[in-house]
């Protein structure tokens, strides 16, 4: 298991700059998000401790991706507050790019940089955001690629890899930045069934190593086994949240019962 | 028979062609290529900046850029070349002194920047928004994401259209004859044109035309090849992974 890897160990995650002392890793307060007339998120609040793994479940279009993008500031809330390690993303004093460089994001469609080799995909932010010299950045990148099982593919282009391999590169790209938080937006939804397992295993390892994670997923087994807490989102509202056991074995609302009946 | 002879003598008089050929090559071809390359450089740099303005989220930045593109694509090239090449020095804006040469470069560059700006803009906007999201998610600033991720991919997308524009520039350099170039500054067309005016025979123009075609036709085929290659993906690297 990767627990022995110092970069992923809990101490390393918790002991980094800016983290100590802050109450929650992620705090979302009364978040509203509109796209034009459409209200996509409605009074969403969420508080997540460091090391906690939260799974977001809900039907397509209920606002899961939008919520994730609000959490790392890729989307601006219409109103409400998002705090990362106690830093208000909307505050002019917050360096949003610096915050984002510590919040990894993995996308459904991988979103690798198509013009760059696998190695450059993973090392480019180290070089240009962290300002590391090339050799050092590539050394870290190689380590991260090895961690996700991609040794030997450094020179390939994304287009030459399978979906599963591309998603591994994407995860390595995020991990290379030594993130405090990882956001996964349906990381396995675009993958062939036989490739899903490998990605879920990497995510599970990360969770066990103490990474703070928000995972949007349709993999209910993963949500049940790995998450500390499950949030059920419906039409932009968190309808229910609780331990996996509570959500899956004892759903309170009809909406959640209907949703579970459809996906289980 | 005299009709045909007449035709051949007017357009394909070998002696006239041979007479003008050395000047066409040593002076004309050189100047055509120098003008085209510098105008292209100017247009690429300026067009790139323009395209960044064109995709700005700020309308106050975007609007002037669109106006620029509309105007310079809307004007006949000859008019712009005249206004810039003759007009600027007359108006007292003469950073390059009296030589018409740099003004010709600037004039063509200004026109072609409008075309290239628009080509680059479509190249940028054809890129999936997800590339920008991914770049920002690893902590890049908007600026870094633009220059490290978006622009390099956009350039690949627009390489064929850009090369095409270079072919157009090579031909467009012929319009600078109206700026009154010094003898050694003349490009292919003005040399051929002068020669034709002196001799009353058009064969020198045909000779110039042949040289234009020797440059532009292979370039056109190269563009088609690059276009096809970029769409089908790199072959060499594909073979490399197949081995791995
Ligand atoms: N940039 C945008 N502009 C306009 N509308 C948007 C935008 N992004 C999302 N939406 C709308 O917001 C709603 C929620 O979208 P979101 O992608 O957050 O849903 P989701 O829960 O992630 O769905 P899925 O499971 O299909 O990924 C949808 O109705 C979508 O059409
Ligand atoms: Mg989504």
UniProtKB/TrEMBL annotation, chain B:
Classification via Gene3D superfamilies: MetI-like
UniProt subcellular location: Cell inner membrane; Cell membrane
Main location: membrane
Domain spans labelled ABC transmembrane type-1: 29-223
InterPro entries tied to this protein: AA_ABC_transptr_permease_3TM, ArtM/GltK/GlnP/TcyL/YhdX-like, MetI-like, MetI-like_sf
TM region positions: 33-55, 67-88, 100-120, 166-185, 205-226
Xref: Pfam families: BPD_transp_1
Keywords annotated in UniProt: Amino-acid transport, Cell membrane, Membrane, Transmembrane, Transmembrane helix, Transport
Membrane topology: Multi-pass membrane protein
Family listed: Belongs to the binding-protein-dependent transport system permease family. HisMQ subfamily.
Protein name: Amino acid ABC transporter permease
């Amino acid at each position: 298991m990767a627990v022995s890897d110092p970069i992923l160990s809990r101490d390393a995650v918790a002991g980094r700059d800016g983290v100590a002392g802050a109450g929650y890793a992620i705090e979302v307060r009364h978040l509203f998000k509109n796209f034009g007339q459409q209200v996509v998120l409605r009074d969403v609040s969420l508080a997540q401790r460091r090391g906690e793994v939260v799974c977001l479940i809900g039907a397509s279009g209920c606002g899961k991706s939008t919520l994730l993008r609000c959490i790392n500031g890729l989307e601006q809330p219409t109103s409400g507050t998002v705090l990362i390690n106690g830093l208000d993303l909307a505050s002019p004093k917050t360096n949003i790019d610096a915050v984002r460089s510590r919040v990894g994001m993995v996308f459904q469609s991988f979103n690798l940089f198509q013009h760059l080799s696998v190695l450059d995909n993973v090392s480019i932010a180290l070089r240009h955001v962290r300002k590391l010299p090339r050799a050092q950045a590539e050394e870290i990148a190689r380590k991260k690629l090895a961690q996700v099982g991609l040794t030997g593919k450094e020179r390939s282009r994304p287009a030459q890899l399978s979906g599963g391999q591309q998603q591994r590169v994407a995860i390595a790209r995020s991990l290379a930045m030594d993130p405090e938080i990882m956001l996964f937006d349906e990381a396995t939804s675009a993958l062939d069934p036989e490739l899903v397992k490998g990605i879920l295993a990497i995510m599970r390892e990360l969770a066990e190593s103490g990474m703070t994670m928000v995972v949007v997923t349709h993999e209910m087994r993963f949500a049940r086994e790995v998450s500390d807490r499950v949030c059920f989102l419906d039409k932009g509202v968190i309808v229910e949240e609780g331990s996996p056991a509570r959500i899956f074995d004892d759903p309170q609302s009809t909406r959640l019962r209907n949703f579970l009946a459809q996906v289980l | 028979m005299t009709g045909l002879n007449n035709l051949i003598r007017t357009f394909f008089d070998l002696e006239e062609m041979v007479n003008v050929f050395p000047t066409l090559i040593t002076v004309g071809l050189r100047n055509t290529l120098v003008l085209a390359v510098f105008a292209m450089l100017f247009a690429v740099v300026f067009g790139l900046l323009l395209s960044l303005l064109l995709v700005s989220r700020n309308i106050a930045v975007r609007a002037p850029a669109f106006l620029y593109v509309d105007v310079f694509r809307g004007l006949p090239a000859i008019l712009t070349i005249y206004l810039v090449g003759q007009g600027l020095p007359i108006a007292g804006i003469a950073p390059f002194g009296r030589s018409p040469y740099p003004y010709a470069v600037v004039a063509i560059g200004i026109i072609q920047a409008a075309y290239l700006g628009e080509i680059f803009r479509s190249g940028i906007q054809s890129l999936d928004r997800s590339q920008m999201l991914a770049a920002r998610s690893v902590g890049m600033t908007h600026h870094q994401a633009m220059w490290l991720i978006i622009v390099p991919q956009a350039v690949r997308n627009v390489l064929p259209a850009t090369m095409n524009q270079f072919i157009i520039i090579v031909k467009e350099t012929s319009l600078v004859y109206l700026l009154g170039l010094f003898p050694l500054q003349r490009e292919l067309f003005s040399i051929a044109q002068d020669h034709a005016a002196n001799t009353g025979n058009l064969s020198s123009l045909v000779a110039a035309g042949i040289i234009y075609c020797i440059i532009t036709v292979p370039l056109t085929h190269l563009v088609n090849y690059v276009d096809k290659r970029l769409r089908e993906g790199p072959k060499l690297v594909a073979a490399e992974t197949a081995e791995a």
